[in-house]
Design goal:
The complex is a heterodimer. Chain A is an alpha/beta fold. Helices cover 41% and strands 25% of the residues of chain A. The chains are: A alpha/beta, B alpha/beta. Bound molecules: adenosine-5'-triphosphate (ATP) and magnesium ion (MG). Chain A: It holds the Pfam family ABC_tran.
Chain lengths: 249, 379
Amino acid sequence: MLSINNLHARIGEKEILKGINLEIKPGEVHAIMGPNGSGKSTLASVLAGREDYEVTEGSVIFQGKDILELAPEERAAEGIFLAFQYPVEIPGVSTTNFLKSAVNEIRKYRGEEPMDAVQFLKMFKEKMAYVNIDQSLLSRALNEGFSGGEKKRNEIFQMAVLEPKLAILDETDSGLDIDALRIVAEGVNKLKGPDNATIVVTHYQRLLDYIVPDFVHVLYKGRIVKSGTKELALELEEKGYDWIKAEVD
Amino acid sequence: MSKELAIKSFQAVGFPTSKMEEWKYTSLKNLNEIDWSWEELNLSVASIDGLQICTLQDLLNHSTEFKAKWEGKDPILEQNPLFALNAAICENPLVLWIKEGIQIEDAVHLSVFLKQDKNTAFQSKMIVFLEKDSSFSIIESANSQGETPVFSTFVQEVFLAEGAQFKYVKEQNLSDSCTYVDQTFVYQDSNSQADTFTFSLNGGIIRNNLHFYINGEQVVSNLNGLYVPGANQLMDTHSVVDHRLPNSESNELYKGVLMGQSTGVFNGKIFVRKDAQKTNAFQSCRNVLASQKATMNTKPQLEIWADDVKCSHGTTTGQLNEESLFYMRSRGISLAAAKTLLLLAFAQEVIDTIPFEETRKSISEKIIAKIEASNDLVI
Ligand SMILES: Nc1ncnc2c1ncn2[C@@H]1O[C@H](COP(=O)(O)OP(=O)(O)OP(=O)(O)O)[C@@H](O)[C@H]1O
Ligand SMILES: [Mg+2]
């Protein structure tokens, strides 16, 4: 479904991704861990199409398409979704209006009829239950003045509405209280299916108790330096990154 | 002064040019090339209960209160050649008189329609007198049609006696070959409230001058405005809020969305005179350059002679936030649609101030249409 080959990316003069290789098949969950500043969010942003980063080498093929050629909105329409580590505040635009625009633009891209107000209402209701989010939050300006946890929950609500093929969750667990973490993780699990895949970027093993990964990768200095199964996360939790750094440096 | 003499003496000085401080960014020099036919544009409104429509002479004869105000006002109009000419030409200004205690709920509609076919310089004038504790609202729309050059000066003088309430919505939707100069004077006595809502949607050159004289205590003056120039349009706001007595409040909320190669100008003066202690005066002017070729010139000017006052002003001019645009695009919203959403959200705050629902809706729709249409051309 997604195959990343020798991906290099830089911002300005600074090279951040230095040859990433990753294969993801439908139905799989991949966890990406790694020390602060190793390039995890950069990888997520490059996949979503952020233009600040310049891809200097390598390729990203998603469902047979070279997505590096596509604009961020086209990638979204192809089915890529990024839950931001730091969701952006959009003053004056409510979550519901924002999502109505998003859904209908994606439908237009796919040659589908736009959804009407009644259909939206029904769909939003259903999806709100996934992450137990309150209506009052959705009618406020998107993310404006939201607490850290509310922002993260809202990201997953958006994911539930957009039903992506590939969801990239960048530290969605940080900022969530213990109950919220469980609710959000359950929401993510409900959205999982044999046809879609998930990349979970996290620092903590706890999330992986709920969203169980098929593979765990360690990103360090812009490269994936170690891959394993869910046991690797447990090992990292116990030992930290020093032993891996020692192996690499 | 006779009309002919007034035209002659105006022609001797000509239209204001950028050499004049007050017209630094808004030169009307090109208008000097045109052989204008100066004409009075007579304005009218439908008569409604409680509203007296009369002549200036009637009002002067029948209201000593008005006479005193009329004779005591600032001679600033006569000193400006453009407005002196307007005064000489406008023999039949629209005069609206609302008597003591009369509360008129429904807004009166005023249309300023400029027909463009023979280089006409339309001159119009309106005088509004609100007696003690009366209330009155005007929804005005200025429109023009045609492609030949047209010029217009529209002067309004509004007098609010104690406790009077006045709301004034202006929608300016003019053609690109139109130069429109609007001058609003508001004289306020104690406990009165005047709210203006100026929406400049289209027009080659639009210059809005607003001049508020706060001649009483517990006065509230709210000046709201939104300008959305596109293409080569120029929209200029010059406001003066003159606090002369203590304990009053003024709020200015101006926003601009500048598209195409357009230019915006905001010059906001606040005077707080020595006697105007405990004045609250706020001014905010925020602008988004929706295109790299648009420019905005802002100049807030506070002159404060009193020591116990709360005044603040803030002017900002920025571009759309890149982070926001990426966030929206990452959800599937196209760049153009993301820009439109952000610009409308930005403009909404001013649109929301319009106190009449239907007008609010129709102005909002026109702004959406304009922003959507110009988005393809942007950058
Ligand atoms: N706009 C930028 N300009 C300069 N350096 C940048 C920029 N964006 C990211 N970087 C640098 O790239 C490196 C990788 O950042 P990134 O955000 O991808 O790390 P991360 O692995 O997500 O870290 P964390 O665990 O703290 O979220 C960091 O050293 C960061 O400072
Ligand atoms: Mg990160």
